[in-house]
Design goal:
single chain, alpha/beta, 6-stranded mixed sheet, 13 helices, 46% helix, 24% strand, globular, disordered C terminus
């Protein structure tokens, strides 16, 4: 295998669609991922999926054009593997699979609609050092437009994992149900009991922005109190003023407050006073999964070429 291997990952979320072109190398100190290009298009599929139950022709057309543009960039980049995953909005839309077929026919990009458990498994690939700690538990919280994935780690092992129908687009459009809040609250209180201290790991565009506004530095953490203060500062201004004062894009300025609400609730109910923000998301996890699959394929190929001593069964990475 080349020392640097190229991959492409597409994350079709409820708020935005993202393309990550990356190079991966195996170094003595571990796997190194270098981001070559990162593109984001704010299509807001969730506004259709969660309000109407369908992806509108207008947004389906915009998504198809975006995928067509991504396909050209991927073709120019020439990665060894490509994977496109769609999450909560496509899961919820009655015509989600139909839209994916249309995109496949017109652009050649094959989109996999993944469930909450699969989404969490891809996110887990973005390992953080406190996930392996035997002194403190780590509560991994990923907030998207349509769902929130939460996993509790201790001593390198998953203690509990669950997906909740709570996301920024749902909250923004008053589509979050009280029973989902109650479920998340009772589940978090139950799974974190006996695991103190617990520290959170935040994933998603909103916590990345909140971390920046908190002047967080790579490799450090910010307090729940600091995140709450920034949320209150943001909420003190109407949308237009918020965009100007905090240099926020329109599609970030409206969802950052409901996003902060979900993170703060999760931290409070999970007994977390600190949150680490590694600035990695689903696309980063997909890149790592693609690389692991390639390593497995190469290993299998090498063993197949060697004299056979016993039959081998390789479990595919989902």
């Amino acid at each position: 295998m080349d020392s640097m291997t190229r991959y492409a990952a597409i994350d079709i979320g409820s708020n935005a669609v993202r393309l990550l072109l990356a190079m991966v190398s195996e170094e003595a100190f571990g796997l190194q991922v270098k981001k070559i290009s990162w593109m984001r298009m704010p299509i807001r599929l969730g506004e259709d999926a969660f309000l109407r139950g369908m992806i509108s022709d207008e947004r389906a057309c915009k998504l198809t054009k975006t995928m067509g543009g991504f396909a050209k960039l991927i073709d120019a980049y020439q990665p060894v593997a490509v994977k496109a995953c769609a999450t909560s909005a496509m899961r919820s839309a009655q015509n989600g699979r139909q839209v994916c077929r249309r995109i496949k026919e017109q652009t050649g990009i094959d989109i996999e609609i993944i469930n909450g458990r699969q989404e969490a498994r891809y996110l887990f690939q973005n390992r953080h050092k406190i996930m392996t700690s035997s002194e403190k538990a780590a509560l991994f919280v990923d907030v998207g437009g349509g769902s929130t994935e939460i996993t509790l780690f201790f001593d390198g092992k998953v203690q509990a994992s669950r997906s909740f129908n709570l996301g920024t687009i749902r909250l923004l459009n008053n589509r979050a149900r009280q029973q989902d809040w109650d479920l998340m609250k009772s589940w978090l209180k139950k799974i974190t009991r006996g695991h103190e201290p617990v520290e959170a790991i935040g994933s998603g565009g909103n916590i990345n922005q909140l971390f920046k506004l908190a002047k967080g530095r790579p490799g450090t953490w910010v307090s729940r109190k600091k995140i709450k203060k920034i949320r209150d500062d943001l909420a003190a201004y109407p949308l237009e003023e918020r965009m100007k004062r905090f240099y926020l894009k329109p599609d970030r300025a409206d969802v950052i407050i409901p996003g902060a609400r979900i993170y703060l609730k999760a931290m409070s109910w999970g007994r977390c006073e600190k949150i680490h923000v590694p600035m990695q998301g689903l696309a980063d996890g997909i890149i790592r999964v693609l690389h692991n699959q390639r390593l497995q394929t190469n290993s299998l190929r090498a063993q197949t070429d060697a004299p056979a001593t016993e039959s081998l069964q390789i479990e595919a990475v989902p």
